[in-house]
Write a structure and sequence with these properties.
Serum Albumin, Chain A, Domain 1, 3-stranded antiparallel beta sheet, 17 helices, 12 strands, 41% helix, DNA-binding, telomeric DNA binding, TPR1-6-like_ubiquitin, Ubiquitin-like_domsf, HTH myb-type domain-containing protein
Length: 674
DNA sequence: ATTAGGG
DNA sequence: CCCTAAT
C-alpha cells in the first residue's frame, strides 16, 4: 500500500481539478481516491479563503456612489493579464479576437459541445495531407496548413476510393506508393510536433508556409475557418516555443474540446524512478473531483471552518456573502476547472516565453445582477497555490496529512500576503480610488482584472491574520504526526513565508507535462482578447529547517525503490491519439517500439506499452457505441481510422501467418518428397 | 528490451 | 496502467 511509504508530496499550485474522468476502476485504489479527495477539500478551502479575503477587501474599499445601469451580461470575462514591457505576449492572432469560450455552458449544451465538437480538428501547425500521386488531389491539399474535418474526410474518401473498401488496402502500385510517402511525410510532421523538434522545414521537399525558426520563439497564427455553426470561437493559435533543444515545444494551442490538462514543464530529472515518484505524487495530491455535487456540502463545511480560523474577527455579516460566494465558486468549478487548468497552463506558457509576473490568479469579473446598487462582484475562480513540499511519516494519519497540507497552505496565504490589483495590465496602486474610478466596475469591455499575490513586505497588521505556522502553534501539538516530522512550516513568526520565483513553474493537476506538444492544452483562454493570464512565477514555499528529517532518511529510500508507485494517469489527448493513429497506420500494429520512436520519441511518459495499450483501448472504443465511451471524446473520424488500420493490419498479420504456414508446409512437403 | 495479452 | 509470460 502506498501509504506505507513516507509520503513526500509536492504541491505545485492547486487547481480545481479538471473533469471527472477519473478512472472508474477503483479496485485497489479506493483508499487513494478518498485520500485524494480530502486533499481536494483543502484546495477548496484555499480557494474559498482567498476569494473571500479578496472579496472582503473589495467590499471595504468599495465606495460606489453612482448608480449605474448595468447590463446583465452573462459571459464570463476572463481574466488576468499582465502586460510585459515591450513584449506583447501575442502579437497577432492571440490577442485579436475578443471571443470567449463560453464556460458557462451547462448541462446539455455542454455535453453536446463536448461530444460533437465543431469539427474536431486539432492539428496544430501540422501541414498535411497532400498526395503526390494525384495532382488534382494534391492541389487541394498541398500546403494546406490545417486539415479541416472536411478535407480530412476527403482524404479518407480518396483513400478508400483507391483502396477499394477501406481497411482492405492492397498496396497497389505507385498511387499507394505516393500515399505512403505522403503519409510518411505527414507522420513526420506529427511526430516532430510531438517530439518538439520541428523538422528542417526549409529543406523539406514539401515546403510549408510555416515560418518556423525552431530555436526562437515562434508564434504561428493559424486562422482556421470556423465551420458553420460552431458556437465556440475557433481559432488556432499556435505558439511554438523551443526552450531547450532537447526539450519541448510549449505554447498555447487552439481550443480543443475537453483537453483540460494543465501541464507542467519538463522535469529536469533524469532518474526515471524519481519521475515515477513525482508522477505518483501528482497522482496523489491532484486527484480529480469525481462528484462535485457530492462534496459540495463537505466543502462548504470545510470552507466555513477554515474561514473561522482566521477570519473569526470578521463580522458575521459577511457570512451570507461568503456562503454565496462559495456556492458560486463551487458551482463554477465545473466550468471553471477548464478555465483554471487552461489559465494556469497559460501562465506557464507565458513563463516559458519569457514573460514574468507575480503569482497567477485567475479572476473573473461578472456583471452584477442587481442593477440597483451597482455593486461589483468579483469571483476568483482559481489561483495557484505555490509549490509545497510536504514530508510526512508513513505512520501519520490521513487526518494529520490533511492538516499538514492545510496548515502549510494556510501559512502561505496567511503569512502576510500582499494583494496587488492589476487592471488591463497595469497595477492599480492607489488604494483609495474607488472601483468605479479605477474602472473595475465597467464590465462592458474585456476588462482584465487580475490579482497578484506577493509576499508582504510589511509585517502583517494587527488585524491581519497571523501566520498560523509556528513550531509552538497549538495546531502542531494536536497533530498526531510524530513531533519531529512535521517540520515543514517552520516559518519564523511574523516572517513572510518565503516566496520564491520559480522560473520553472511546475504544474499540478494530473501532472501532465510538456514533453511534447501533445501535452499541450488547447487554450481557449487565449481567445479572450488580450486577456493573457500572466505568466506565473510559482510562489514556492521552501521549508527552512530540515534537521528533524535526518532522522529517518535512508529508510524510505530503500523501501521506495521497492514499491514503485503507480504512474499517474495521463489520458491521451486527441492530438496524441491522432499521432498514434497515424503512426500505426504507417507502421502497423506490433511494432510498438517503432511507433514510440516514430511518434512519441520525446514523450518520455509514453512507453511503447502505453501506446500499445492505448491502441487496444482505441480499438475497443471505436467498436462500442458513442454512449458507452468515456473520457475525452475522440473524434469519430479518428476512430474510423483506428478501425480501418486495425482491420488492415490484422489482415496483414493473418496474411503473414498464412504465408508462413504455406512456406513451412512447402518445406515440409518438399522434405517429404525427398 | 520488446511483444502480446490478461487484469 | 500494471503485470507477466514469452520472445
Amino acid at each position: 500500500m502506498v501509504l506505507h511509504k513516507r509520503l513526500e508530496y509536492g504541491f505545485n499550485g492547486y487547481q480545481v481539478p479538471s473533469f471527472p474522468r477519473a478512472s472508474r476502476s477503483t479496485r485497489g485504489r479506493s483508499l487513494f481516491k478518498t485520500k485524494a479527495e480530502d486533499n481536494q477539500l483543502c484546495a477548496f478551502e484555499l480557494l474559498a479563503t482567498v476569494a473571500g479575503k479578496l472579496l472582503q477587501e473589495g467590499e471595504s474599499s468599495q465606495s460606489l456612489s453612482h448608480v449605474e445601469d448595468e447590463k446583465v451580461q452573462p459571459s464570463i470575462h476572463g481574466l488576468v493579464r499582465q502586460e510585459q514591457h515591450g513584449e506583447p505576449s501575442d502579437p497577432e492572432g492571440c490577442d485579436k479576437s475578443p471571443i470567449f469560450s463560453d464556460f458557462s455552458l451547462h448541462g446539455n449544451d455542454r455535453n453536446k459541445y463536448l461530444k460533437t465538437p465543431p469539427h474536431p480538428k486539432h492539428e496544430v501547425a501540422v501541414a498535411h495531407s497532400s498526395i503526390n500521386a494525384n495532382s488534382s488531389f494534391s492541389e487541394k491539399f498541398d500546403h494546406a496548413e490545417v486539415v479541416t474535418g472536411e478535407s480530412r474526410k476527403d482524404f479518407v474518401d480518396f483513400l478508400s476510393k483507391i483502396e477499394g473498401s477501406p481497411g482492405n488496402g492492397k498496396s497497389s502500385g505507385n498511387v499507394l506508393d505516393g500515399i505512403e510517402r505522403k503519409v510518411e511525410y505527414d507522420s513526420e510532421k506529427i511526430s516532430s510536433v510531438i517530439n518538439g523538434t520541428f523538422p528542417d522545414i526549409s529543406n523539406s521537399e514539401y515546403p510549408m508556409k510555416l515560418d518556423v525558426k525552431p530555436p526562437a520563439l515562434v508564434c504561428l497564427n493559424r486562422s482556421v475557418e470556423v465551420p458553420h455553426t460552431s458556437f465556440l470561437p475557433f481559432q488556432t493559435n499556435v505558439k511554438l516555443v523551443s526552450k531547450d533543444d532537447d526539450e519541448n515545444i510549449s505554447g498555447c494551442t487552439h481550443p480543443s474540446i475537453g483537453n483540460l490538462k494543465a501541464f507542467r514543464p519538463p522535469l529536469r530529472i533524469g532518474d526515471r524512478r524519481i519521475r515515477r515518484l513525482l508522477a505518483s505524487k501528482y497522482w496523489k495530491v491532484a486527484p480529480k473531483l469525481n462528484d462535485r455535487k457530492l462534496h459540495k456540502s463537505d466543502m462548504w463545511h470545510t470552507f466555513r471552518n477554515t474561514k473561522a480560523s482566521y477570519t473569526r474577527q470578521r463580522s458575521q455579516r459577511n457570512f451570507a456573502y461568503r456562503r454565496k460566494l462559495f456556492d458560486r465558486l463551487v458551482s463554477k468549478s465545473a466550468e471553471g476547472a477548464r478555465n483554471e487548468a487552461i489559465a494556469s497552463k497559460k501562465g506557464i506558457i507565458e513563463d516559458a516565453i519569457g514573460s514574468a509576473s507575480q503569482a497567477s490568479l485567475v479572476a473573473s469579473q461578472e456583471s452584477s445582477y442587481c442593477s440597483r446598487e451597482s455593486r461589483v462582484k468579483l469571483s476568483i475562480k482559481s489561483f495557484r497555490v505555490p509549490e509545497l513540499f510536504i514530508e510526512i511519516p508513513e505512520t501519520a494519519t490521513v487526518g494529520s496529512l490533511k492538516r499538514t497540507v492545510r496548515e502549510a497552505v494556510t501559512a502561505i496565504l496567511a503569512g502576510g500576503l500582499h494583494v496587488g490589483v492589476v487592471l488591463k495590465g497595469k497595477k492599480v496602486r492607489d488604494d483609495n480610488k474607488t472601483l468605479l474610478q479605477t474602472g473595475i466596475s465597467h464590465d462592458d469591455k474585456v476588462d482584465a482584472l487580475g490579482f497578484l499575490l506577493e509576499p508582504n513586505p510589511s509585517p502583517p497588521s494587527a488585524s491581519a491574520p497571523q501566520p498560523i505556522f509556528h513550531e509552538d502553534s497549538p495546531l502542531y501539538v494536536t497533530c498526531d504526526i510524530p513531533q519531529h516530522l512535521s517540520r515543514y512550516p517552520k516559518t519564523p513568526v511574523g516572517d513572510p513565508v518565503p516566496l520564491v520565483a520559480s522560473p520553472d513553474p511546475t504544474l499540478i493537476n494530473e501532472g501532465t507535462s510538456v514533453d511534447n506538444i501533445l501535452d499541450e492544452v488547447p487554450c481557449p483562454i487565449d481567445m479572450t482578447a488580450g486577456n493573457t493570464a500572466q505568466g506565473s512565477r510559482a510562489l514556492v514555499a521552501i521549508p527552512t529547517s530540515v534537521e528533524p528529517l535526518t532522522a529517518i532518511p535512508l529508510h524510505r529510500k530503500s523501501r521506495q525503490s521497492k514499491l514503485a508507485q503507480r504512474r499517474i494517469r495521463r489520458p491521451f489527448s486527441v492530438l496524441e491519439v491522432e499521432a498514434l493513429v497515424q503512426a500505426v497506420e504507417k507502421l502497423g500494429t506490433g511494432r510498438w517500439r517503432d511507433v514510440k520512436i516514430y511518434a512519441f520519441d520525446n514523450a518520455k511518459h509514453r512507453t511503447y506499452v502505453d501506446l500499445k495499450d492505448k491502441w487496444k483501448t482505441l480499438v475497443h472504443t471505436a467498436k462500442i457505441s458513442p454512449q458507452q465511451r468515456r473520457g475525452e471524446p475522440v473524434p469519430q473520424e479518428l476512430l474510423d481510422r483506428v478501425l480501418a488500420a486495425h482491420a488492415h493490419w490484422s489482415e496483414q498479420q493473418a496474411m503473414q501467418q498464412i504465408k508462413q504456414q504455406n512456406e513451412t508446409s512447402l518445406v515440409f512437403t518438399s522434405l517429404m518428397a525427398e
